[in-house]
Structure prediction request, 369 residues.
Amino acid sequence: MSETPPEIADIMRVSSHREVYEPCDDSFALVDALLTDQTNLINHKPNICMEIGCGSGYVITSLILLLKSKLSNIHYLATDTNPLAAKVTTETLEAHGLKADVICTDIASCLETRLAGLVDVMVVNPPYVPTPEYEVGMEGIASSWAGGENGRSVIDRMLPVVDRLLSEKGWFYLVTLSCNYPSEICLMMRKRGFAWRILVQRSTEEENLIILKFWRDGEEVERLEEETISDEFSRSLSLFMRKQ
Amino acid sequence: MRLITHNMLSCNIKGVTNGFPLKIEAEKVIEKEVDFNPDFLKHMFAKIEWKALVEAARAMGYGELPEDSPDVAVIESADETFLKKLHHALLEIHLEEGALVCPETGRKFPVNKGIPNMLLHEDEV
Prediction:
């Protein structure tokens, strides 16, 4: 019997460092969301895929593996603000026999001009933990989780960057917690012309994780009532939870 | 880091207006073969800043690219000589050790183990 090629990163081969966030429930939920969407991703035929905040490299490695057998020559980019995380990511990729271009930068700041409109798939597991504002932007492992007020400080800075980098057909996968007010995030993205969908909802002992997918739906949005999106969000969430 | 990525990188120090392209100082370059995919190259060709790629490839020791950007007929032609060169320059040469230098300020961004460190100092943001 032939062995089926692995479709996601092997946890035993993920490199680590005490100052780098290890794959945890949120990383697994994000990879599960990508697996759920695997067929769509393959049919999407992306040219450039990118992860902002690659940490241990578990997610970008999984993304490469789950597209690899079907699509060749996708250009993969990963960034992290923590130099140790960038290094650990390349080690994780190497341990899986893969290579991607990893850059140490704040969000995507050195890529914003030239990469604008070119990214077909963007994946982000942001620092979403609500913390005092002064913890945001600290060095080392704190940069992987410290999210400021409602865990939104970094997420809110990322959204315009993601909008700028995504191509016309670009898709965006984002990890959020229910305490991040994800319906507000959907509203902000709606105003930028994006539609959204819940891909995974998962409650762990500590957090209630929601993985969202966004895509441009081509509609100009002039006026939006906050309540409308908020209602829509609650409806899809309860619908989603009933299906599980 | 490969040259396809280098072609997308700029120096974003506050106030810098010409932060592209970053000049490459190569100390160690490695080559790694990857599958040739003409469609991908044709797609990317439109997005590439040609002069920047030619100079970057030269800095990495690869001087086979034509000085002037070839026109679309060359890209679409059945003869894949040019596409093969483009493929090699964009996807197969990696800058492992060295630095990227901002064309305007001369600020050096180190590249170690293939990772460019583009983080800015506090007074540069």
Remarks:
- The mean pLDDT of chain B is 95.
- The first strand of chain B starts at residue 23 and ends at 31.
- Chain B touches chain A through 31 residues (CB under 8 Å).
- The domain at 3-119 of chain B is CATH 2.20.25.10 (N-terminal domain of TfIIb).
